[in-house]
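Q: What would this complex look like in 3D?
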Amino acid sequence: MKACASAPGKTILTGEHFVVYGEPALVVAIDRRVTVKVTERRDETLRVASDLGIIGVFEGNSFKAEGCRTDSRSFLEPVRIAAEAVMDRVGIKRGLDVEVRSTIPVAVGLGSSSATSVATVASVGKILGADLSQGNIADLSLAAEKFVHINPSGVDPAISTYGGAILYKRGEGIKRLQSIPNLPLVIGNTGLSRNTGRLVQFVGERRERLPSVVDPLIGLAGTLTRKAVEALLEGDLEKFGELMDVNHGFLVSIGVSNEALDRLVYAAKRAGALGAKLTGAGGGGCIVALCTLETQAQVAEAIQGAGGTPIMAEKVETGVQVWTEN
Amino acid sequence: MKACASAPGKTILTGEHFVVYGEPALVVAIDRRVTVKVTERRDETLRVASDLGIIGVFEGNSFKAEGCRTDSRSFLEPVRIAAEAVMDRVGIKRGLDVEVRSTIPVAVGLGSSSATSVATVASVGKILGADLSQGNIADLSLAAEKFVHINPSGVDPAISTYGGAILYKRGEGIKRLQSIPNLPLVIGNTGLSRNTGRLVQFVGERRERLPSVVDPLIGLAGTLTRKAVEALLEGDLEKFGELMDVNHGFLVSIGVSNEALDRLVYAAKRAGALGAKLTGAGGGGCIVALCTLETQAQVAEAIQGAGGTPIMAEKVETGVQVWTEN
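A: Here is my prediction, written as structure tokens for the whole assembly.
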């Protein structure tokens, strides 16, 4: 038997960075998923094979890469951590073959690592016969997240587990939002790598240098996210888009945008997007543009024309899914 | 005898747009000037010749262009209004030859029209033997400004008259700032024309749509300008530059920047500018970058490389100057 699970990636619609200082962020699951399929092995090893061609075998504390990539272990380690977290929880140890397939670009802030953790936890739980709740899956996935991110908020495992839309506030945790309308999005990938930790640190330093300006801006970003949620619940996508535009300016103010991101933002806006902003840490990575079904294709084209890689996406309500195959 | 006067242009360092809603703006005179030279004619006409090749003769209510430009009259009309304002004030009517020379690019927000009005008022006052105070000159110049801008704040004639640095607040008027350090600037002209009225209107409409976000942002922009003035008075140009960067993000948030402006801003920052932002109405026109004497040349080069026209500038304390030539 093969135990399978899939989990969606995510994009942050408003509030990134400001969330570090206690303001809410609005996150939605997108229709890009990681699928993990697990079968039991006859030995005690854990073999992980990703469709990126990264393959390796964990045996106790040792790791052996199959293939020539030197970063295989750090790439596959979160899968091992997630799998072992489940085995520890359930109290069963098994050798496993884990096969990972993804339609989420990696390392651009779209929640690829969390979706991998969540789908691994769910599929490993299934093969071991454990009946894990969504809450269990999100909690166990957080362990693997801690390997990837120093201080993960927990919002990424949560959105990959539950799907839909989530309002996250540090200290208060997640609030699932219901009745959010369909959101046709285009994500634009700059292709530039980014250093989330360094950007978070830069914002912290700017805040220390200019507290009387940056602190009120942080508070205002919280107001913006609350207004954005109101607009969504009213189905007012035009207002929501305009608030995304304003939010992008806030991110420019704290110094985390750059020319490549802004170029994609302007291209998306010119092509008719209702709103466009960088999403995630900034300094590279992606923008997200809110479109209508009519403008989505032309916004994607404009992003391509401006040197980005467009990813058509929409919010999905389906979080982690588990099934078996023979 | 030839009566001569020159007056400087200006650039807004912080607070544009937000000034419309009662927050302060910080404006400095720059070392680009308009020079006006006036001689008496034997007839009753007013002949105005600009070094842009725009020449025309006013006689009563009629106007005759010399040359082929069809916009001569609207271009030269402010000179006539300024000259007539002085003649009305002094109670003397003369035919005049007015010669206008400028090193300020026109219609990009650098105060070319105000500098022209101020230098015209001062030189016409001189030829008529009137002893106009700086306050008189600024007031009389405002009349001509009303021809160019629908609702001029009076800050442009003031800065062209007094020079130096001015904090302007609607309803409270101008406050001249003393002891401001030298400010090596590079202005970057996008070469794109802009429509100030339309941009001001756009901001007003965004404010009406999103009052709970835009109103606090306006207030925060006022805080920013006050902090920027503090930084200048402390001689802390690094802090001042960082506040310019933050201010640029605010202008992005209210929707008045564009890709050409942002490109010049990023180019200036990459080349070592302490801060860079759009200046004036936005939507075209110019950026202003604060540099050190060491980085000024490389910032200018970077702006050129990014498709802009760089203008090296610095704050000047000298406002309107009047003299005679034989």
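A: To summarize the key features: DSSP finds nine helices and 13 strands in chain A. Residues 185-313 of chain A form a domain with the Alpha-Beta Plaits fold (CATH 3.30.70.890).
Q: Very helpful, thank you.
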